[in-house]
Design a protein that fits this description.
With 77 residues, the chain is of the alpha+beta class. The protein contains 1 helix and 5 strands; from the N terminus they run βββαββ. The chain has one domain.
Length: 77
């Protein structure tokens, strides 16, 4: 798993292409971990819903590989 401290200011924008999205997990210590990359947007959002449905307390988000983030808020359990 890849780890990234804090949040980088990443610019740029690409069209929503297949296989250019990744899912990241933010833990209680504000560390980010790559869960999976190379996903379509639909696959990435489905993976986030799956993890949130398990009752995990961590926050998950979908990010385009170009670095533009689409935040996904955790559900209240």
């Amino acid at each position: 798993m890849h780890q990234r401290q804090g949040r980088e200011d990443e610019g740029g924008s690409k069209g929503r292409k297949e296989g250019v999205f990744s899912v990241w997990r933010l833990d209680d210590n504000n560390n980010e971990f790559l869960v999976r990359d190379g996903l379509t947007e639909e696959e990435a959002l489905a993976l986030v819903r799956e993890f949130e449905g398990r009752g995990h307390r961590q926050a998950y988000r979908v990010e385009r590989e170009s670095g533009v983030a689409d935040s996904v808020k955790p559900t209240d359990s």
